[in-house]
Amino acid sequence: MPKLTKRQQQILELLEETEQPCTGFKAIESLKAISEKVSKFDETLEIHMRLGIEVKHADQQVRSTVVLPAGTGKKVRVAVVAKGEKVKDAEDAGADFVGAEDLVEKISGGFFEFDVLVATPDAMGLLGKLGKQLGPKGLMPNPKTGTVTFDIKNAVKELKAGRVEFRADKQGMVHVPLGKMSFTAEELMKNFSALSDAVLKAKPSAAKGTYLKSVYLTSTMGPGIKIDTKQLAAEVKEFLS
């Protein structure tokens, strides 16, 4: 058996104090305590959920967005491709880069100094030639994620405030960052509750059996703590009420 590092030993000792599975709030408190003692940087809290869905079936896809009440702790750079008065709407809302043909040409030339690309429906035609560049980077605007919309002001403001996308992968897993470990436990719990509630509401009607197979909270370099899925819905409802 390989010898544990001093850091790993510290984590295991601290983790012994947490009975699993536990509530989301208890997991957050434990991960914050571990991060404060063993981490040298501000880690990110992450949630990993395994859903009881058949992802190969079109009617069992899970994909949506949610605004994290406490934000993500990360500055989000938003680029907007729009025409007419929507250009001013984007600028007023705080978009970092705004344009039409000029911005599309800039991106075509290799400009990717943004995290999210938003477009109005009437400007999507301009992005057609950028499919091979934007697609692999996950930057192509999509109506399902609210990045193709005429409501540019609201879209930009939500993205700046901490709107995140969640999507079940081929294994039925959902992975989402929930904020920085330097956030208070209450702030992280607000984000955890908002995300969990959104995933629960996104349950496909065609999904059968247990929807939440497993839920774990972890930090960037920390251990995974198992959440009691039987209590999750009630805990979230209580926290959001």
Main attributes of the structure:
241 residues; alpha/beta; Ribulose 1,5 Bisphosphate Carboxylase/Oxygenase; Rossmann fold; 2 domains; 4-stranded antiparallel sheet; 3-stranded parallel sheet; 8 helices; 9 strands; globular
Give an account of the 3D structure:
Helix content is 35%, strand content 20%. The protein is α/β, with parallel strands linked by helices and 241 residues long. The chain folds into two domains: 19-72 and 163-240, Ribulose 1,5 Bisphosphate Carboxylase/Oxygenase (2-Layer Sandwich), CATH 3.30.190.20; 78-161, Ribosomal protein L1/L10, domain II (Rossmann fold). The chain has a four-stranded antiparallel beta sheet with strand order 7-1-8-9. Strand 8 and strand 9 (225-226) form a beta hairpin. Helix 1 runs antiparallel to helix 2 (24-38), helix 2 (24-38) packs across helix 7 and helix 7 crosses helix 8 (229-240). The protein is globular, with a radius of gyration of 20 Å.
Tell me the number of strands: 9
Q: How many separate domains?
A: 2
Determine the CATH topology of the largest domain: Ribulose 1,5 Bisphosphate Carboxylase/Oxygenase
Element-by-element helix/strand order: HHEEEHEHEHHEEHEEH
CATH architecture of the largest domain: 2-Layer Sandwich
Low-confidence stretches: none
* Mean pLDDT value: 92
With strands numbered from the N-terminus, the spatial order across the biggest sheet is: 7-1-8-9
- Class of the largest domain in CATH? Alpha Beta
**Overall geometric form:** globular
